[in-house]
Design goal:
The chain is an all-alpha fold. The C terminus is likely disordered. It has twelve helices and two strands; from the N terminus they run ααααααααααββαα. The protein is globular, with a radius of gyration of 19 Å. Keywords: Membrane, Transmembrane, Transmembrane helix.
């Protein structure tokens, strides 16, 4: 019996565990004040990438069994600030169902008066309402997931409190501040996924990023139209689905990746040429793969 649902998840999980082992090592061994601060600064961008994988995991869990999934979610919680079931409630059964309706979207980019939020306003608003909105989705629609969300969040808080009891300074810079920073960076990045796309068509509702390095580090999250078309599809199959959908995606719905992949023109909009659009289309993904 295999432990993983998909073998492609083995190396990413090993990397997450390795980063967490380094976190624990710094927490337990750092004696100089600057070491935890430096570790916090160095980890902001990598833990932002890990947030993308936490997102994938809560769409389609990486392990076949509950216990390793819960243990992985504790690691993800300390690395990204998004605890077990939080992405599922806020994002999977919230945002994915409502993203075409800005009066309901849990990650809405419009103000109540219909105008577009700025990046900072959106990021702060979505970050501060993330857990209340997850709670509300669970209360209305998914009481079983809500119970697990509450239990796991309570466990995460108990573990965090224990870390502060052992060493409050190291716990602040190695765990708590990275949790807050990763949540903010993740929310800020999502601003560019759908902003100003007023449409009822899924093919016209998301921006896509084709940069190889970005998709390597985020598990193909740049193929965002494909992700919204089949949000339960494993991340490894998104490029194939994008190739099938590429003819229907407008040429202007592409962006540059953000820092550190692009330092000049970060998140800038792109318009693909006809040749580039043709190059995207390849052999269509099979129905069997889409159902996997």
């Amino acid at each position: 019996m295999t432990l993983f649902r998909h073998p492609e998840d083995r190396i990413p999980v090993l990397m997450f565990a390795g980063v967490f082992a380094l976190d624990v090592t710094v927490f337990l061994t750092a004696r100089s004040w600057w070491v935890p601060v430096l570790w916090f600064a160095l980890g902001i961008i990598p833990k932002g990438w890990i947030s993308a994988w936490n997102h994938h995991h809560q769409h389609l869990t990486m392990f076949r069994h509950a216990l390793p999934n819960r243990l992985l979610e504790i690691i993800f919680g300390f690395q990204t600030g998004v605890t077990s079931q939080a992405w599922f409630l806020h994002h999977v059964v919230g945002h994915h169902r409502n993203y075409l309706d800005q009066t309901k979207d849990e990650s809405r980019w419009k103000r109540d008066d219909g105008t577009t939020m700025g990046e900072l306003e959106y990021s702060l608003s979505t970050m501060l309402t993330a857990y209340p909105r997850a709670w509300e989705v669970g209360r209305r629609q998914h009481p079983k997931s809500l119970r697990l969300f509450v239990v796991m969040a309570a466990l995460q808080l108990v573990l965090l409190a224990g870390l502060f009891w052992v060493n409050p300074y190291n716990a602040l810079f190695v765990f708590l501040l990275p949790m807050v920073a990763s949540l903010f960076v993740t929310v800020w990045a999502t601003f560019f996924h759908h902003v100003d796309l007023n449409t009822a068509q899924h093919a016209e509702a998301s921006y896509n990023i084709l940069h190889k390095g970005y998709n390597l580090m985020t598990g193909n999250l740049g193929y965002h139209t494909a992700h919204h078309t089949r949000h339960g599809l494993h991340w490894s199959k998104l490029p194939e689905l994008h190739a099938q959908l590429a003819r229907d995606i407008p040429a202007h719905l592409y962006r540059q990746p953000g820092i550190p992949f692009v330092w000049r023109g970060s998140e800038e909009k792109l318009v693909l040429s006809e040749h580039e659009l043709q190059a995207l289309t390849g052999a269509p993904v099979s129905d069997g793969e889409l159902a996997a």
